[in-house]
């Protein structure tokens, strides 16, 4: 038997369905809504727990930082008092913490509390536990080496990097004290760990994008007035020209013009070389000196490399002039110091020339595993330098300002 319904009968059945009060549809909707409501409620409870954990972590961090700066006998009590003051208003007596000093001088702490749940309570979970921990150490977090410091505050373009200049110093910072406009100009990108310019204005051309920070706390000259004082005695060599060949020099006072012409090999015996005049290396000289220090006695004293000079120079490792390769007294008038066309060089030690506007011209290749440079200004033209921090290094604190830092 086949049933059939007229349109009128179908409309009547539809009206009866909508008027039904049996609740099947409402029940189905209610049942399917339970997981949705539980998920939303759980998200609210977990968000509240996350906020509580963040606040608890801040309280533990502040406590160990405050405690570790105190004398050892007061570290734990100071941290406990700091924690109690931090959490009193927010957690009341619901949070607790323990602190303990470590043998390496650090201070550790851990804290716990519970968060009452609202929605998860209907699922049988009335609270969630929260824990936070931290360790603080006294002192600065770390030091970052500064390989190049330019001390001029009045020169614009105190650091000028022209197209073709290459500097590979991924472990070093460059600091520029100039506050002029622009304090530095970049026409090429330098591969340095960081470039810190005290001034707020720099110029970057041609797509140059070095890691430059402006308006930052560039370090002051750490060597001013602290290097050995040199008494310049009588001249041991005066106005001497060396022709091509093999030459050995001894420490002494070199006055007037000391020139090395043609091509030759120069060996410098260990010791102090006082330059009171000019010392110029021309053409294709190969210069080697281990354990040597050059002292430029006044603003007229220069040490210049021209042509294709190959120089390997390293400072003494012990004694009065340990780790000082070349330096000058403070307070000299500003003069220019060009280095032209040096073929290949390797320098080890401190190059302290705060009165010199140093310009590296032509193609200059330098590789050093240990060098620190302090100049008045620096212009890099066709250069290819690879440098790393020296034994007499400058450094800047990289951790938080203060006397302690969070170790974990």
- Outline the biggest β-sheet: 23 strands, mixed
- Average pLDDT, all residues: 83
User: What is the count of DSSP helices, taking H or I runs of 4+ residues?
Assistant: 3
Record field, number of beta strands: 27
Determine the strand fraction and express it as a percent band. Answer: 35-45%
Number of separate structural domains: 2
Query: Helix/strand-derived class?
Result: alpha/beta
Gyration radius, in Å: 36 Å
Summarize the structure.
Helix content is 18%, strand content 44%. With 408 residues, it is α/β, with parallel strands linked by helices. The protein folds into two domains: 23-138, no CATH class; 143-397, no CATH class.
Care to describe what's here?
The protein has a 23-stranded mixed β-sheet that branches. The protein is elongated and about 115 Å long. Helix 2 runs antiparallel to helix 3 (75-91). It folds into two domains: 23-138, no CATH class; 143-397, no CATH class. Strand 1 (96-101) and strand 2 form a beta hairpin. The chain is built from three helices and 27 strands. The relative contact order is 0.11. It is α/β, with parallel strands linked by helices.
Give the SSE map.
Layout: H1 7-19, H2 24-68, H3 75-91, E1 96-101, E2 107-116, E3 127-138, E4 143-150, E5 159-161, E6 166-176, E7 184-186, E8 191-197, E9 202-204, E10 212-214, E11 237-242, E12 245-249, E13 252-260, E14 264-268, E15 271-281, E16 286-290, E17 292-296, E18 302-305, E19 309-314, E20 324-327, E21 335-340, E22 342-361, E23 364-367, E24 370-380, E25 383-386, E26 394-397, E27 404-406
Parallel strand pairs: 4-6, 4-24, 5-7, 5-24, 6-8, 6-25, 7-9, 8-10, 11-13, 12-14, 13-15, 14-16, 15-17, 15-18, 16-19, 17-20, 19-22, 20-22, 21-22, 22-24, 23-25
Antiparallel strand pairs: 1-2, 2-3, 3-27, 4-26
């Amino acid at each position: 038997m086949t049933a059939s319904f007229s349109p009128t009968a179908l409309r009547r059945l539809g009206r009866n369905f909508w008027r039904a009060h049996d609740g099947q549809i409402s029940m189905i909707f209610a049942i399917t809504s339970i997981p949705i409501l539980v998920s939303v409620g759980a998200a609210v409870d977990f968000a509240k727990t996350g906020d509580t954990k963040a606040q608890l972590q801040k309280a533990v961090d502040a406590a160990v930082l405050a405690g570790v700066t105190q004398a050892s006998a007061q570290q734990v009590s100071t941290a406990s008092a700091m924690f109690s003051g931090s959490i009193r208003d927010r957690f009341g007596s619901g949070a607790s913490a323990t602190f303990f000093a470590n043998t390496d001088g650090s201070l550790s702490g851990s804290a716990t509390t519970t968060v009452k749940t609202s929605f998860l309570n209907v699922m049988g979970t009335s609270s969630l536990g929260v824990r936070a921990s931290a360790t603080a150490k006294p002192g600065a977090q770390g030091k970052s080496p500064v390989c190049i410091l330019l001390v001029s505050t009045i020169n614009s373009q105190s650091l000028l990097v022209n197209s073709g200049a290459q500097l590979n110093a991924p472990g070093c910072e460059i600091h520029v004290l100039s506050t002029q406009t622009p304090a530095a100009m970049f026409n090429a990108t330098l591969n340095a760990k960081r470039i810190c310019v005290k001034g707020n204005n720099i110029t970057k051309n041609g797509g140059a994008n070095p890691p430059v920070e402006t308006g930052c706390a560039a370090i002051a000259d750490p060597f001013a007035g602290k290097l050995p004082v040199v008494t310049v005695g009588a001249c041991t060599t005066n106005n001497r020209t060396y022709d091509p060949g093999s030459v050995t020099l001894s420490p002494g006072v070199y006055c007037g013009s000391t020139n090395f012409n043609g091509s030759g090999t120069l060996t410098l015996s260990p010791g102090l070389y006082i330059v009171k005049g000019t010392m110029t290396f021309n053409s294709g000289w190969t210069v080697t000196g281990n354990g040597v220090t050059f002292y430029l006695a006044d603003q007229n004293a220069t040490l210049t490399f021209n042509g294709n000079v190959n120089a390997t120079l390293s400072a003494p490792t012990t004694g009065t002039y340990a780790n000082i390769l070349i330096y000058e007294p403070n307070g000299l008038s500003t003069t220019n110091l060009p280095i032209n066309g040096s073929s290949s060089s390797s320098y080890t030690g401190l190059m302290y020339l705060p009165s010199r506007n140093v310009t590296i011209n032509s193609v200059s290749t330098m590789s050093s595993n240990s060098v620190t440079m302090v100049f008045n200004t620096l212009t890099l033209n066709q250069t290819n330098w690879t440098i790393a921090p020296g034994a007499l290094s400058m450094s800047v604190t990289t951790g938080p300002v203060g006397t302690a830092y969070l170790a974990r």
